[in-house]
């Protein structure tokens, strides 16, 4: 079954790399994976809003278009909620993961478009805080990748950790693996 992930972030936060983590992790789990960015509207500038996309499937992925109706939305920077309608096209049962220390209800107060879907699940994770604590840089993608693994069940934690190890090198890879583990543990149903 095809699952689509739309990532909202700012240039320089690792949104494209997060999508790549998901595509590599899908392959690690024996699935198909696809990742690509949309940088239109100034996304090539550090700090400008961008979107990245990932698809995970048990079958070959033939689609090459931007994701309009995501199963999952990941918001790497909560300030984007006041600028971009991150809820556009979400399905009634989509899962939204927001990088924030504030609870989901509080984040929605700042959103330009509040979701109306009744079954929508919205979770928050202080991913930037995790990144600063472990990696020493405000790049939340690894912590969000681990959290996504825990709350979605689409990718195993082991596959996510292997993807990080393949994409990054040395000490930075090890620190990001630690951040992913912490994100996973914080979002794990057992915690």
Descriptive overview:
- The protein has a domain at about 5-125 and about 150-155: Pyruvate-ferredoxin Oxidoreductase, domain 3 (3-Layer(aba) Sandwich).
- By secondary structure, it is of the alpha/beta class.
- β5 (about 95-100), α2 and β6 form a beta-alpha-beta unit.
- The protein is globular and about 40 Å long.
- The mean pLDDT is about 90.
- Strands 2-3-1-4-5-6 form a six-stranded mixed β-sheet.
- It has helices spanning about 15-30, 105-110, 125-135, 140-150, 155-165, 170-185, and strands at about 5-10, 30-40, 50-55, 70-75, 95-100, 120-125.
**Number of E-type strands:** 6
* Helix-strand sequence: EHEEEEHEHHHH
* Name of the CATH architecture of the domain at 3-126 and 149-156: 3-Layer(aba) Sandwich
Query: Which stretches are low in confidence, meaning pLDDT under 50 for 5 or more residues running?
Result: none
Task: Give descriptors for this structure.
6-stranded mixed sheet, 6 strands, Pyruvate-ferredoxin Oxidoreductase, domain 3
Please describe the topology of this protein:
Blueprint: E1 3-10, H1 15-28, E2 32-38, E3 49-57, E4 72-75, E5 95-99, H2 104-109, E6 121-125, H3 127-134, H4 141-152, H5 157-167, H6 170-187
Parallel strand pairs: 1-4, 4-5, 5-6
Antiparallel strand pairs: 1-3, 2-3
What can be said about this structure in brief?
By secondary structure, the chain is an alpha/beta fold.
